[in-house]
Design goal:
The complex is a heterodimer of chains A (248) and B (131). Chain A has 248 residues and is mainly alpha-helical. Chain A contains nine helices and no strands. Chain B has five helices and no strands. Chain B starts with a helix and ends in a 6-residue tail after the last helix. The model of chain B has no long low-confidence stretch (mean pLDDT 88). Classes of the chains: A mainly alpha (248), B mainly alpha (131).
Chain lengths: 248, 131
């Protein structure tokens, strides 16, 4: 059983390394820091290779002559090597930046925030760890939680309803009125429920993940329900409006 | 008053608020998005165009309430960028912008809450289901 536990630990490390590799693309202006430090990445890859070899040994599929102990020594040596390289790069970067009177993002949090806010100088923002890079990448996605995809799907299905009505020689103008008013109603209700709910969550201090999920579900339900009632009623409104116009 | 007539009134207000949404977005929020001083203070966009609602709320709600919402979001750990910043927006908007914000926000909020109330009345209390 200890072998099993060790394998699981190795898998966790491998997963982290894979994430780290994703954050180290070879090109791209924003990632020039990582491109210039590719030797650190190479050390990471070497470490990963020793870990893979270790896993093979634990599973009994290792190269001939390799024991668990020797594979373990190789892993720790590769790890030391990677750490040494990383620390060297870090001290070199910090040393260069200390020339600036305003300080360095590694030492001055306000400075780092200022640089991050100004999109022109994103290249100056050099991160200490892949963990920080990951956090920053997530933060940049924070901007738009949902894209326009859902709305496009919704609009497309509504347009196809109108087109079906037209093809079957139905009253397509009436269908257009029904679909567009129920679309406006459902969008408005969803937005109102969502933004009122955000404030409610904040004031009730339940802005936890469960609270957010609940809010999204409630807003979606409200939006669908509003869509339903307006679809039920708006056909009658259309007839009333036309009757009124004809009676003028 | 019948359910259908109440819903029709709410939908007329909804229609007006949809028009004001576009006008306010083009007149005021476009200007604020271009301004480097305010472009980071417009709040989170859950979906495209959500910042228009955030800005309208910050300008239309009483200043005390808007500031409280902003402080609350920061103290909840949601970050500075979550809600629009009323103090900054007041500095960079004219009186006309605020008038537009109030017209839009209150027509939007009243029709939104009206729709929610009528939906609840319909599904929970059966109001208007027998018509």
């Amino acid at each position: 059983m200890p072998a099993e536990g060790a394998t699981r630990k190795v898998f966790v490390v491998l997963k982290k390394l894979a994430q780290c590799k994703e954050l180290c693309p070879d090109r791209g202006d924003q990632y020039r820091f990582y491109a210039a430090r590719s030797d650190v990445c190479a050390c990471g890859t070497a470490f990963q290779d020793t870990l893979l070899a270790y896993r093979d040994v634990v599973r009994g599929k290792g190269t001939t002559g390799a024991t668990k102990a020797s594979a373990g020594i190789a892993v720790s040596a590769a790890f030391e090597h990677m750490q040494k390289h990383f620390q060297r790069e870090l001290s070199r970067t910090a040393g260069v930046q200390c020339a600036s009177r305003k300080g360095t993002p590694l030492l001055n949090r306000t400075r780092a925030l200022n640089i991050a806010c100004s999109s022109r100088s994103i290249k100056k923002l050099e991160l200490v760890s892949t963990l920080q890079a990951g956090k920053l990448a997530r933060f940049s996605k924070y901007g738009k939680v949902s894209g326009n995809g859902l709305i496009i799907v919704d609009v497309a299905s509504r347009i196809s309803n109108v087109q079906n009505e037209y093809k079957t020689d139905g009253n397509w103008e009436r269908e257009l009125f029904v679909e567009s008013s129920s679309f406006a109603a459902s969008a408005l209700t969803g937005k109102t429920a969502m933004s009122a709910g955000v404030r409610a969550l904040m004031f009730l201090t339940v802005a936890t993940p469960a609270g957010w999920v609940g809010l999204i579900v409630v807003s979606a339900a409200a939006s669908m329900a509003a869509n339903y009632i307006v679809k039920e009623e708006s056909g009658g409104w259309y007839d009333d409006i036309l009757n009124w116009l004809n009676s003028l | 008053m019948s359910f259908s007539a109440l819903l029709a009134i709410v939908m007329v207000v909804c229609f007006i608020s949809c028009i004001l949404f576009v006008i306010f977005g083009q007149v005021t929020v476009r200007k604020l998005r271009k301004n480097p001083a305010t472009k980071h203070a417009l709040g989170i966009e859950f979906a495209s165009g959500w910042d228009i609602v955030n800005v309208a709320g910050a300008l239309a709600l009483p200043k005390m309430v808007a500031q409280k919402i902003k402080r609350n979001s920061v103290s909840m750990g949601l970050g500075q960028g979550f809600e629009a910043d009323p103090n900054l927006l007041y500095k960079h908007t004219t009186r006309f912008d605020r008038l537009l914000a109030r017209l839009f926000y209150w027509s939007w909020a009243s029709s939104g809450f009206g729709l929610i109330a009528l939906t609840l009345a319909y599904f929970l209390f059966g109001f208007g289901q027998n018509e």
